[in-house]
Amino acid sequence: MRIIHTSDWHIGQRLYSKERQEEHQFFFDFLLSKISELEIDALLVSGDIFDVAYPSNSSEEIYYNFLTKLIKTNCRTIIITGGNHDSISTLNAPQKILQHLNIYIFGGLESELSRHLIHFRKDNEDCVVAAIPFLREKDLIKSVPGQTYEARQDSIRNELINLYQSVYQISEEKYNKSIKIFMGHFHTDGSLLSESEREIHFGNLGVVNAGKLPKADYWALGHIHKPQIIAGNEFIRYSGSPIPLSFSERADKKSVVLINIEDGKLNTQNIEIPAYRLLKRIKGSFKEVGNELEKIKIETHNSMPWLEIVISEEEIDAQQISDFKEYLENLKNCEVLKYKFESTNTKTLDQPIPEKLEDISADDLFNYFASKKGIALNNEIISAYKEIVQQILTEKKENA
Ligand SMILES: [Mn+2]
Predict the structure, then answer these.
(1) CA 91 from chain center: how many Å?
(2) How many whole angstroms from 350 Cα to the centroid of ligand 1?
(3) pTM for this structure?
(4) How far is the CA of 168 from the centre of ligand 1 (A)?
(5) Ordered domains of the chain (ranges, CATH)
(6) pLDDT tens profile 5-20
(7) 12: left (phi over 0), alpha (psi -120 to 50) or beta
(8) How many angstroms is it from 278 CA to the middle of ligand 1?
(9) Distance from residue 161's CA to the centre of ligand 1 (Å)
(10) Average pLDDT of the residues in 267-274
């Protein structure tokens, strides 16, 4: 039996203002060809299907087109769970009808844990998947008045482990001979982050200790965008996102994980996804950046290379800036998505402020102003900030 594990598609994501549709389409075509070629029996997607709670029509079209092509392959079991970016109701809307096509969707936590277990077999191989989506605070704990932020985080972490233990228990009772694969969308200790996991990670709050997870045969994890194994164990894995979601992921080799089950034994293998587009960061003087830009060639799939640039000079005048902008507009071999100027003479320039508000996340902006005003961020402030953001997001949802 062969299974593919992927996650963090983030359909509809934009890099600065640029649409990623071509890149997603390229990935889905690649995935479909691998599924046919390798005769894949099951596909697991561990959360963050869409980038936003209310995806655009074109994002939904990409998703449903993919599923439509997928059910024409021999892949008989398709399991999709929600991530922190997904709205439970958006993902669950087609749940009932899609299960007739062997597409199992779990946008959020079901009222009965046993519903999350999907059992399937092929020839002599027998597998059960615990399809657990991203768990929200309300899924895990009741609010206790007067509880400190740390105490609350502690109980969230403990209850998450307890919930997984309970699911494991049920899987042992119902399917004790089956291979057990567990899905999850959370942050484990020791994982390497990039700049695109939309979350504040102060210290170790909200991080799950991988050593405490039940001993499943394989952990198909999502949330972290860099593909990686956890605690040196190839059976606890983040597949990573299929496309780079920020310039910090430009050098990642994106991949999906192939899980091979033979005679009740597992082995895993990365399948590398070819890069659709070159992403590059350049930093230097006007001259150095100009020289680097000249060298860039359109190579992969005729797609325009995208760049992020930092110009670093001792002093920069208005004329130089306007000449540079004009130069960028006339580039034919690549497109500069983002540029900023930095002075090497720290006395003359303040820390550069991002020019456009939409280019900076709420968390980064919060951090920026805190540091600007000299406010030390303790857990109480962070907790209050998070509550406010949560409230705004909920109101936004209700008004949508
Ligand atoms: Mn994600």
Answers:
(1) 16
(2) 33
(3) 0.84
(4) 25
(5) 2-272 (3.60.21.10), 279-397 (no CATH)
(6) 999 999 999 999 899 9
(7) left
(8) 21
(9) 21
(10) 96
